[in-house]
Amino acid sequence: MTACKKGKCLIEGCLNKKIYARGLCLTHYHMIRKLVKDGKRSWEEFEKVGMSLRPKIGKNAPQRKRFEAMAAKNNLKI
Ligand SMILES: [Zn+2]
């Protein structure tokens, strides 16, 4: 499984063929992530209307644990 598989972004009319995460291209992923981070919307709301997919990496996935461990080691708040 690669981070950038080929496909089609969930956003209608988006021509980006590279899917970054949650069925979205990098641009749209960041667009939604910003709204979520600002507390304006939640991922669940976008999932409900088909504008995002559930993340493939769960909260307890080993990949995430390793990521969190390294972030903590480097004093990065995530
Ligand atoms: Zn897109």
Please explain how this structure is put together.
The protein is mainly alpha-helical. The chain has one domain. It has helices spanning 26-37, 43-48, 62-73; strands spanning 5-6, 18-19. The chain has a two-stranded antiparallel ribbon. It starts with a strand and ends in a 5-residue tail after the last helix. Bound molecules: zinc ion (ZN). Zinc ion binds next to helix 1.
Which oligomeric form is depicted?
single chain
Secondary-structure class: mainly alpha
**Looking at the structure, what is the overall shape?**
globular
Average pLDDT: 88
Order of strands in the sheet with most strands: 1-2
Indicate the low-confidence ranges by residue numbers.
none
What are the secondary-structure elements, in order, as H or E?
EEHHH
Q: Which ligands does the model contain, each kind named once?
A: zinc ion
> How many DSSP H or I helices?
3
Jot down its keywords.
single chain, 78 residues, two-stranded antiparallel ribbon, 3 helices, globular
Summarize the structure.
The chain is mainly alpha-helical and 78 residues long.
Tell me the layout of helices and strands.
Layout: E1 5-6, E2 18-19, H1 26-37, H2 43-48, H3 62-73
Antiparallel strand pairs: 1-2
This protein binds zinc ion.
Zinc ion binds next to helix 1.
